């Protein structure tokens, strides 16, 4: 795990096993994805606590990386809008283009003007929170990456996923026009895997730099 390579101990927690009561002992928060909406509490009761932690992270400007559902939770609790099965489906390698703010950002700047990233979603952030800064978009989806404050990030794409991970994906059970086989998705992802990995690693290194700065600030208070 790249964060461990960068010198951080990672406390990996599945929501169903119980989430931390607070973030006081942490230098950063990463919230991963899943086939849920931010308020699907009937299917995932731990989401209420995850939303509470997201609010606390935003208030403290704790270095936070919300990925897919994690980014949607950040958008939701900060006053944006997330809609289920809305808009085009993005599945596999997708080009993310950075905004002017994204190119100047510590994390998204690693993408340069544009870079291929892995996606797998149809739920989408249809409106960013009022305080959010847009950092990146795809051709089909405007709200691919945003920042709240200085250190809280929401991403629709998956920097933690590489081409070989797609081999575990399932074929569409009810294919719609435009749906592609897993073999095709893997082939496309493999073709850009070197750039995708390099870019994702740079993004995580930027997040690690935010965590170091936050930890240093906390020790001097």
TrEMBL record:
GO MF entries: hydrolase activity
PROSITE patterns assigned to the protein according to its UniProt record, in alphabetical order: GATASE_TYPE_1
Stored Gene3D superfamilies: 3.40.50.880
Swiss-Prot/TrEMBL keywords: Glutamine amidotransferase, Hydrolase
Superkingdom: Bacteria
Native source organism of the sequence: Microbacterium candidum
Keyword hit for Hydrolase: yes
SUPFAM superfamilies in alphabetical order: Class I glutamine amidotransferase-like
Protein name in the entry: Type 1 glutamine amidotransferase
EC number of this enzyme: 3.4.-.-
Occurrences of domain Glutamine amidotransferase (ranges): 24-162
């Amino acid at each position: 795990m790249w964060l461990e390579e960068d010198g951080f101990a990672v406390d990996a927690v599945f929501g169903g096993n119980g989430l931390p009561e607070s973030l006081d002992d942490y230098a950063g928060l990463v919230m991963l994805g899943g086939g849920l909406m931010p308020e699907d509490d009937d299917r995932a009761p731990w989401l209420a606590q995850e939303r509470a932690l997201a609010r606390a992270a935003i208030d403290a400007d704790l270095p936070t990386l919300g990925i897919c559902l994690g980014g949607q939770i950040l958008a939701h609790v900060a006053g944006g809008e997330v809609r289920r099965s809305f808009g085009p489906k993005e599945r596999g390698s997708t080009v993310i283009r950075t905004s002017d703010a994204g190119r100047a950002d510590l994390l998204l700047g690693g993408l340069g003007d544009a870079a291929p990233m892995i996606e797998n979603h149809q739920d989408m952030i249809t409106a960013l929170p009022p305080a959010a800064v847009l950092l990146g978009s795809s051709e089909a989806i405007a709200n691919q990456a945003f920042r709240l404050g200085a250190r809280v990030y929401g991403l629709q794409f998956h920097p933690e996923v590489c081409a070989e991970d797609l081999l575990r994906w399932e074929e569409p059970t009810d294919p719609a026009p435009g749906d592609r086989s897993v073999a095709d998705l893997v082939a496309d992802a493999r073709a850009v895997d070197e750039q995708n990995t390099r870019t994702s690693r740079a993004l995580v290194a930027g997040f690690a730099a935010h965590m170091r700065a936050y930890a240093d600030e906390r020790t001097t208070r």
